[in-house]
Amino acid sequence: MTQIRSQINKKVKLFIIVPAFNEEKIIGKVIFALKAQKLKNTKKTIIVVNDGSTDKTEEVAKKCRVTVLSHPINRGLGGALGTGLEYARSKSADIVITFDADDQHEPKDLQRLIEPILKNKADFVIGARLLKNSTMPMDRKIINLVANIINFFLWSIWITDSQSGLRALSKNALKKIEIKMNKMEVASEFFKEIKKNNLRVKEISIKAIYTNYSKAKGQKNTNAVNILVKLLLYRFAGQK
């Protein structure tokens, strides 16, 4: 607890990782909203991981004067998050937030997201879209429920929104979590690492914004079977 109070007094080094692939239409708006959001006792750094975009995502992000890390090719969500987490580790981040680039998340939820970490009550916090009344489309709710069940089967951790892209990691979690999967299955890989390292996980309720744009950019329902197969291979055959 003394360490947490010390961090609060000296301002916590907070890194917000925004993985982005072909998001030139919306990335500027997302960055502006993140910059405008005030967070208590933090020194905020925004990192956009441009994951091999073929549009002007990189150019727009750089004009917004944030740190931009670029992949020469599209590696996938896991690859982008892995790059962002490694960068945050190299800069001795105290807390890391992952934040989707499709304008689905509300920056005003960020303070509540990091509070359990600041108070030393959690190592990993999930922004859950389903703890209260949710506007999530029914097909996404079904896919999300199936993913939650699979996640529990694989790692024995029950989470109401295992696929949420809004997360916060403590310094301890950042140090211990190793991301190896490159694609969308990274959402479940986080829980494998939580289980392996005996990390404390907590959910907080968030509001998600569903627009035609965010729904088009989100995970395709038809890809769910492919993700399941990869997770089963990863869990039981040691394949990536």
Which ranges are low-confidence, i.e. pLDDT below 50, for 5 or more consecutive residues?
none
Number of strands: 7
What would you report as the Rg, rounded to the nearest angstrom?
A: 17 Å
Question: What's the shape?
Answer: globular
Mean pLDDT: 88
Which strands sit side by side, in order, in the main sheet?
Answer: 3-2-1-4-6-5-7
Task: Calculate the terminal CA-CA distance, rounded to whole Å.
Answer: 38 Å
What can you tell me about this protein's structure?
- It is a single chain.
- With 240 residues, the chain is of the alpha/beta class.
- 43% of the residues lie in helices and 18% in strands.
- It has a seven-stranded mixed sheet with strand order 3-2-1-4-6-5-7, with helices on both faces.
- Helix 6 packs parallel to helix 8 and helix 6 packs parallel to helix 10.
- The model has no long low-confidence stretch (mean pLDDT 88).
Short characterization:
By secondary structure, this protein is α/β, with parallel strands linked by helices. It contains ten helices and seven strands.
Describe the secondary-structure layout.
Blueprint: H1 2-10, E1 12-20, H2 27-36, E2 42-51, H3 57-63, E3 67-71, H4 77-90, E4 95-98, H5 110-118, E5 124-128, H6 138-155, E6 167-170, H7 171-176, H8 186-196, E7 201-205, H9 212-217, H10 224-236
Parallel strand pairs: 1-2, 1-4, 2-3, 5-7
Antiparallel strand pairs: 4-6, 5-6
Helix pairs in contact: 6-8, 6-10
